[in-house]
Design brief:
The structure holds three protein chains of three kinds. Helices cover about 30% and strands about 25% of the residues of chain A. By secondary structure, chain A is an alpha/beta fold. Chain A has a nine-stranded mixed β-sheet with strand order 7-6-5-8-4-1-2-3-9, sandwiched between helices. Chain A has a five-stranded parallel β-sheet with strand order 12-11-13-14-15. Chain C has a nine-stranded mixed β-sheet with strand order 7-6-5-8-4-1-2-3-9, with helices on both faces. In chain C, helix 3 crosses helix 4. The longest helix of chain C has 17 residues. Chain C starts with 10 loop residues before the first strand and ends in a 5-residue tail after the last helix. Classes of the chains: A alpha/beta, B alpha+beta, C alpha/beta. Chains B and C meet through loops of B and helix 5 of C.
Chain lengths: ~325, ~450, ~270
């Protein structure tokens, strides 16, 4: 491949970590990307199979302006006039507008699909899609979790290295980076999710569900029926009008598996479901489908888990 | 008035429902400083009712109101249905003239209607404060009402007159000690579903067109709980609801949603609402006992209007409250203005309000119909009459050849006996009904 | 505390977006997001500590003045409405706002607007003003107003702890602060408060919308993980997935079975 492809990914890298959606952005651009940030060599390893050609633009800090300057310089030198896709991770969302300004391009934020001349973005809280046909280079951010990652390349990527750029004084400085905490984690980024639906019969069940989630190192998600009832706030809703998630493990209690729910579920490696109806779609797609009262199982599980943690402490 | 500085306004009106907005319009037009306090985010936002308003009383206040009022459909058909288990007797009246100004009744959504009315108050100069709940009355040294306390910081408002238009179960009228006692038997619970259907489907099923609408009042069909039902057509929704006697509801341990579901599946109702999607479910209490439960409506510095004063007419084939609220609000506003002009806002001076209510339909309708709610909601009328009436009609229309047609008198006697209604009771109810409705 | 007056006075700005909910094209249901309210509350608290003036700015129709009046009643000093189409690209919206907040030492925004919601306006604004940004804050500590300590959401559940000094554009999530209720007397006073209105030319964006359909996700490459089994089961038309198992169990046995499965799959030690 050469520098004239129509789409290139720009992935902000913080201390060697590829952000949520970073690999998807690289897959969207067919393996052609710029890594910008700190400790890039470590990140390169994690892109194997997904990347064919990488430009590394190292920086000494991850301040948005620093990343934007470095990415703009790299693109101007090595891929001018090429449309840019950036993962809509926190750092990606920070970077994208600044980069768009530096390249004097339009920004399409929160896209579900990005191609050289076409961008689709979700609108109206996910109920509709807007399609843009674009004939000038642009910058877009791609929603993590919507695409998935396919791997095309067996060889290591071809790599272009750019000299490190200098940091600049800033009114905003990073004091430290705190490790993940499942109870505050964004659902979209949670590797394990415990979900609850209308089969759980009261608001207080969801306090219990949160407890069990925490004990399993998982985040809690729910169906729209539950957020409509006001039992759990909307940011915990999984599905087309909620959060699109992509956990490795999904454990569901009393969820029927409506398409609006499951289409936001990603592709977990393992699914366990508890439901009184053995034939509902959620049970059908489970690795382990348990026919039982979800409320009782939840209680039993909570009891067992609290015993286990106590024993663990003792 | 030199006292002005102590006051934030001449009058504080609590509640921007139909009663409150009319009071505010009257006062603001008379040049009074009015603050209209409403707890919802906008007037009407949380208000519910069955669905039909009779706004003729607005003719003076808002000339040609029909040109701007947010109306869904003009009622040209009024039906009264008597439902037994599976039969129905409908008396249907149609008057196309009601589709033309000055009209009669109209279906309207309260968030639209109340907001429209409140905007007239604002245009006239009233100050509307929303998302603010009145939590109590302020009194001066002499114990006269002199303002309200609200739930906002720095939230006391002072005025020589307060008009309580805060709806059924008025917390202000109670706090002022104007309700001697409250008996749950005086209230009914109204529950309603708003059902979405395409306009053309409604037009066909209800046999109307354009902006014509239908008002159906129902006796029976409430799963044995004393009460009644209604079906009203909006542009592309149908309001279907039941009104249920509270103590009976509690005693029978039935949930209102079950009773609505029962009505919806009645063979006479089901085809009307088949396939409709429930857009909204709401519930509200109705002061139903009429005259017998009305509070004292004036105190020093205080007037009570609308549902807050129990001025709601729920009497079987009538379910009217908005028009009474509009009128009483207007009269309360006028009385307050006159009392302020006299520099005397004592109960005695404000009494002109009650006199006006007595002199107009507001109380004369209630007086005339005072026995009707009790009759309509009585066990006999509720439990026995629907079966009796539909039984009679069934036999009148049944062709049972070769048997000859039986005489009407015989049918009535046999059906009356079968329904377990004593002749004496039937005559008594008939008499009460004649006098009550007459 | 700054006691200086006039042009040197410290000032802070808040950007509020007036949003009409989807499918209800009706101003009665419009309002500002919880995030914008949190931004306003944070700015008011910051101003109380620094003695700063608070300017609230919106780009939108006349209905949006309701939000500005509420903000004034809550304690904001000045309100500006820019009469222009807020559906224009965020970059352009930011350009028309910038001159009105140019003297502010801090500009507070919500992290996302409720309708188009790209979260990009604050970054565009920072760039136009040539100042730094701290966006998507989940926690803000104002005890030292000269040096705000804040926590920002990163991905993978990580959090970045930041120190923020003037001048910067910050955006906050709705959970950061709960807006105070406006005192009644202040609310009455703002009914005829002066709002300065400026016209600007912005060209709104018109796009054709189609109903949402989730994009078909590509399958991960078969690398011998359990994902492979899933690919197999997915392509195994009609047949029951090989690993899948349906059991009817008592609650207690069900809990044990779940824990056993989680151990087997390596989620629990
Ligand atoms: C435009 C649109 C967008 C939507 N977006 C979303 C979205 O983003 N996310 C979303 O989740 N939904 C969404 N929905 C709603 C979706 O269609 C479903 O209604 C919803 O997902 C169902 O939630 P549920 O599984 O909790 O409830 P139900 O479908 O009611 O299922 C409850 C399940 O619990 C089981 N159950 C009952 N009692 C017990 C018991 N005691 N023990 C165990 N199991 C029990 C039942 O067998 C059933 O399977 C959307 C709908 C529309 C129209
Ligand atoms: C199920 C049902 C069906 C009905 N059907 C009909 C019908 O078809 N036709 C008809 O004419 N009538 C009908 N009615 C009756 C009608 O709704 C009432 O009579 C009418 O609304 C009374 O108007 P109002 O202004 O007195 O009170 P409301 O409409 O109740 O208004 C009171 C206002 O005060 C506000 N408020 C209350 N407390 C406070 C406080 N503390 N501080 C600030 N604000 C406060 C409320 O938010 C509200 O806006 C029906 C009622 C019910 C329940
Ligand atoms: N039209 C607008 N007027 C004022 N502030 C705005 C406007 N649009 C966006 N903002 C601000 O920018 C934040 C993020 O919005 P957005 O970039 O549209 O998601 C909002 O929460 C507001 O604080």
């Amino acid at each position: 491949m050469n520098a004239q492809v129509g789409l290139i990914a720009v992935v902000p890298v913080r201390d060697g970590a590829i952000p949520a959606g970073g690999l998807e952005a690289l897959a969207e651009s067919r393996g052609h990307g710029v890594l910008v940030g700190t400790d890039l060599e470590a990140a390169v390893v994690d892109t194997r199979g997904v990347t064919s050609r990488l430009i590394l633009a190292p920086t000494t800090s991850c301040a948005p302006r620093v990343l934007a300057e470095a990415a703009a310089a790299a693109l101007s030198a090595h891929a001018p006039h090429v449309a840019v896709v950036i993962p809509a991770s926190p750092d990606g969302r920070d970077l994208a507008p600044l980069l768009a300004r530096r390249l004097d391009r339009a920004l399409y934020a929160g896209a579900t699909e990005v191609a050289e001349h076409r961008v689709r973005t979700a609108r109206q809280g996910g109920l509709a899609i807007a399609q843009f046909d674009v004939h000038r280079p642009f910058v877009a951010t791609l929603q993590p979790g919507v695409r998935g990652v396919d791997q095309h390349f067996t060889d290591d990527p071809e790599i272009v290295r750019i000299d490190p750029s200098n940091s600049m004084p800033s009114a905003v400085t990073t004091d430290e980076v705190l490790p993940p905490d499942v109870s505050t984690m964004d659902l979209a980024e949670a590797p394990r999710i415990v979900g609850g639906g209308a089969g759980l019969d009261g608001a207080e069940r969801f306090a219990k569900l949160a407890e069990v989630s925490k004990a399993l190192d998982a985040s809690m998600g729910v169906t729209r029926v539950i957020t409509d009832r006001g039992w759990v706030s909307h940011e915990r809703q999984i599905g087309t009008t909620g959060v699109v998630v992509d956990p490795r493990l999904y454990v569901s209690f009393g969820i029927s598996g409506a398409v609006q729910h499951t289409s936001g579920l990603g592709q977990p490696d393992h699914i366990i479901s508890v439901n009184t109806d053995a034939h509902c779609p959620m049970m059908q797609m489970s690795d382990l489908a348990i026919v039982a009262d979800a409320n009782d199982v939840l209680e039993a599980l909570a009891t067992k888990l609290s015993i286990e943690t106590e024993r663990g402490v003792a | 008035m030199s006292a002005d500085a102590r006051f934030d306004a001449d009058v504080i009106v609590v509640g921007a429902g139909p009663a409150g907005s009319c009071a505010a319009i009257e006062l603001a037009r008379a040049g009074r400083r009015v603050i209209l306090v409403e707890r919802g985010p906008f007037p009407g936002s949380k208000n519910m009712y069955g669905g039909v308003v009779y706004p003729r009383i607005l003719d003076e206040l808002i000339p040609s109101w029909w040109e701007t009022a947010p109306v869904q459909r003009w009622v040209v058909r009024r039906s009264t249905m008597i439902l037994s288990e599976s039969n129905a007797l409908t008396i249907d009246y149609r008057n196309p003239a009601w589709a033309e100004p000055p009209h009669n009744g109209a279906t309207a959504y309260r968030p639209d209607f109340d907001n429209w009315l409140a905007q007239h108050a604002v245009e006239a100069g009233a100050v509307l404060v929303t998302s603010t709940t009145v939590t109590g009355l302020l009194r001066d040294a002499a114990g006269r009402v002199s303002g309200v306390r609200t739930d906002r910081p720095d939230g006391d408002l002072r005025a020589p007159v307060v008009i309580a238009c805060d709806g059924v179960n008025s917390f202000l009228a109670k706090e002022a000690g104007l309700y001697p006692h409250t008996d749950p038997a005086n209230f009914t619970l109204g529950v309603k579903e708003t059902l979405a259907l395409p306009k053309h489907v409604i037009d066909e099923r209800f046999n109307v067109r354009d902006d014509q609408g239908v008002d159906i009042e129902i006796l029976g069909g409430t799963s044995g709980v004393n009460g009644g039902g209604f079906v009203y057509t909006n542009l592309d929704t149908v309001s279907l609801g039941v009104v249920l006697k509270l103590p009976k509801l509690a005693a029978q341990k039935k949930r209102p949603e079950e009773i609505i579901a029962g009505l919806k599946s009645h063979p006479a109702i089901a085809p009307l609402v088949e396939g409709a999607e429930v857009k909204e479910y709401s519930a509200h209490v109705i002061p139903e006992a009429g005259l017998s439960m009305m509070p004292t409506m004036v105190a020093d510095g205080l007037l009570v209007a609308g549902d807050a004063a129990a001025l709601c007419l729920a009497a079987g084939i009538w379910l009217e409250g908005v028009n009474f609220a509009l009128a009483s609000g207007m009269y309360a506003g006028q009385a307050a203005h006159e009392a302020l002009t006299r520099h005397d806002v004592s109960a005695k001076s404000l009494k002109a309000y009650t006199e006006r209510l007595n002199a107009t339909f507001v109380l004369s309708d209630h007086k005339k119909l005072r026995k009707v709610p009790g009759l309509v909601l009585s066990d006999r009328v509720q439990q026995k009459y629907p079966g009796f009436v539909t039984g009679v009609v069934e036999r009148v229309f049944r062709v049972d050849n070769p048997n000859p047609k039986p005489g009407l008198r015989r049918i009535v006697r046999e059906e009356r006996k079968r329904a377990g209604i004593g002749l004496r009771d039937l005559l008594k109810d008939g008499w009460t009904g004649m006098r009550g409705f007459g | 505390m700054s006691s200086s007056i006039g042009r040197d006075r410290v000032s802070v700005a808040v950007c509020l977006k007036w949003v009409t909910p989807v499918g209800r094209d009706d101003d009665r249901f419009a309002g500002v997001s919880a995030a914008d309210q949190a931004a306003l509350e944070s700015a008011l608290m910051w101003a109380e500590r620094t003695g700063a003036d608070v300017t609230v700015v919106t780009v939108g129709p006349v209905g949006a003045e309701r939000a500005l009046r509420d903000a004034l009643a809550c304690g904001a000093t000045r309100a500006i409405r820019i009469d222009a189409d807020p559906s224009a690209p965020s970059s352009d919206v930011a350009r028309v706002v910038a001159p009105h907040v140019a003297s502010a030492s801090m500009v507070w925004c919500g992290d996302y607007s409720l309708d188009r919601g790209s979260g990009s306006f604050p970054a565009f604004l920072a760039d136009t003003l040539g100042i730094d940004q701290a966006l998507g804050l989940v926690d803000v500590d104002l005890s030292d107003p000269e040096r705000i300590r804040a926590v920002r959401r990163l991905d993978g559940g990580r959090r970045e702890v930041l120190s923020i000094t003037a001048r910067a554009v910050v955006s906050v999530e709705g959970s950061v602060a709960r807006l105070r209720r406006a005192p009644l007397r202040a609310l009455l006073a703002t009914n005829d408060a002066a709002i300065s209105v400026h016209a600007a030319a912005l060209i709104g964006e018109e796009t054709a919308l189609v109903p949402f359909r989730p994009r078909a996700r590509v399958l991960p490459a078969p690398v011998g993980s359990s994902a492979l089994d899933r690919v197999r089961t997915l392509t195994d038309a009609g047949g029951t997935p090989s690993r899948s198992e349906t059991v009817e169990l008592s609650p207690d046995a069900a809990a044990d079975r779940i824990l056993a499965a989680l151990r087997e799959w390596g989620y629990l030690a």
